[in-house]
Amino acid sequence: MILLNKPNINFNLKINTIIDTLKSNELSTAGKYVGVFEKALTKFTKIKYASAINSGTSALFIALKVIGVDKNHEVLVPTLTFIATANSVLYNNASPVFLDVDDSHNLDKEKFFKFIKNETFIRNKLTFNKKTKKQIKAIIITHMWGNSFFDIELYNLCKKRNIKIIEDAAEALGSKYIINKKKIEHVGNRSDLACFSFNGNKIITTGLGGAILSNNKKYIDKVNFLATQSKTDKIRFKHSEIGYNLKLSSLNAALGLEQLKKIPKFLKDKQRIHFEYYKQLNHLEGFSILHDDKKTSNYWLNIISLKNTKKFNAENLQKYLYKKKIETRFVWYCCHKQSYLNKFQAYKIRHSNIVVRNSLCLPSSTDLKVVHQKKIINEIKKFRNLYL
Ligand SMILES: Cc1ncc(COP(=O)(O)O)c(C=O)c1O
Q: 301, 364 in Cβ contact below 8 A?
């Protein structure tokens, strides 16, 4: 089976750091490689502070907590995202408000501006939802499939309206955003806090793991405090508030460190794979490949969209490719349609529904062999000849 997105640790792996964690009993969250990995992440992203966390989901949960999200608040969330993005809001007893995405699969900013203009009001410099009267405390910006989102007007408006920005950069380590003609920055540099995932299918993996990065030291200090049981007195074990056990272990961090050394190569591999799909399939009637021509994406996962007729559609393409031993995956089912989330407000959602119906994720592992990608492309072309 050609897999969708498998980890790449089968290179000339220098396991010295991993052996060292085992030999030196540096296994736990208190082990030395946690700090070393955090430092390496700040160096790579040029974001000043980092906290290594035990998953991307935990990172989102704790990031929202750090900015003070609670039951009185709402958080704006694009409906086309992995479920963890929405769940992190619920973990904090707050309510999500779901927004649409556009052709890029990222937030539809025009609809966001309309929502703020028509559906909210300001009181005491804070932003409230006209419908629910709840304060809109934050927005989570996702970088879907590694394709970055940045919009200076949106960032400025959020600042003016006291809406904090959390980036869900789970899929986007190595992705950049364009600030202006002269400035390109790694994602995560402009928001309050940015959350990354190092789960097994991500561009680098620690097995399970994640991180929160921020240019605000106070935020990262608070993340570390909450993520290590909110301990105020290490000798007498005193705790000032409810805390959690959410840090990454040193053993996982050691793997992350080795993986991070390989990211320049992984980024090149991902880009090569993406441009091959784009070149071979995008021009064919009936297909389109989601494309970031600015080359700011880490090209984590490739998405093909189909015209969608009775036989020529994503579902049938998946079945066809499965028979040829090629794994594909549907894109996330929209959050606003999930049975336990459909009671929350969803603002004029249209395009996300179309994306879900028409799209499929294609194999994008960094070590995808050229012959295997050729096979995938040929089979997709054959499917088109059969059914379009
Ligand atoms: C967009 C998005 N958000 C959050 C997560 C959650 O990360 P994790 O699986 O590390 O908990 C993922 C990854 O699976 C994701 O793709």
A: yes
Place of tokens 């091959």: 276
Using CA atoms, how far apart are residues 326 and 358, in angstroms rounded to an integer? 18
Ligand 1 site, residue 54, Cβ cutoff 6 A: no
- Which atom of ligand 1 is nearest the CA belonging to 209? 10
Kindly give the distance from the C-alpha atom of residue 265 to the centroid of ligand 1, in angstroms, as a whole number.
Answer: 22
- Hey, what CATH topology would domain 16-261 get? Aspartate Aminotransferase; domain 2 (3.40.640)
Query: Distance between alpha carbon 65 and the CA centroid of its chain, in Å?
Result: 18
**How many A from CA of 191 to the centre of ligand 1?**
18
**C-alpha 84 – ligand 1 centre gap (Å):** 6
- Ligand 1: which of 54, 57, 361 to mutate, most ligand atoms within 8 Å of CB? 57
Residues in the chain, overall count: 388
Q: Would you say 90 and 83 are in contact if contact means Cβ atoms under 8 Å apart?
A: no
Q: What burial class does residue 152 get, using C-beta atoms within 10 Å of its C-beta: 0-12 exposed, 13-18 middle, 19+ buried? A: exposed
Residue nearest to ligand 1 atom 8, measured at CA: 56
Average pLDDT over residues 267-283: 97
Cα(280) to ligand 1 centroid in Å equals 30
> Do 16-261 and 263-387 fold alike per CATH?
no
319-364: pLDDT as tens digits: 999 999 999 999 999 999 999 999 999 999 999 999 999 999 999 9
The yes/no answer on whether domain 263-387 falls in CATH 3.30.420.270 is no
pLDDT reading at 14 higher than 80: no
pLDDT, mean of residues 4-28: 80
CB distance 106 to ligand 1 below 6 Å: no
Question: Mean pLDDT across the chain, nearest whole number?
Answer: 96
DSSP label of 369: -
Model pTM score: 0.97
Q: What is the mean pLDDT of residues 106-119?
A: 98
Asked if residue 120 has its Cβ within 6 Å of ligand 1, the reply is no
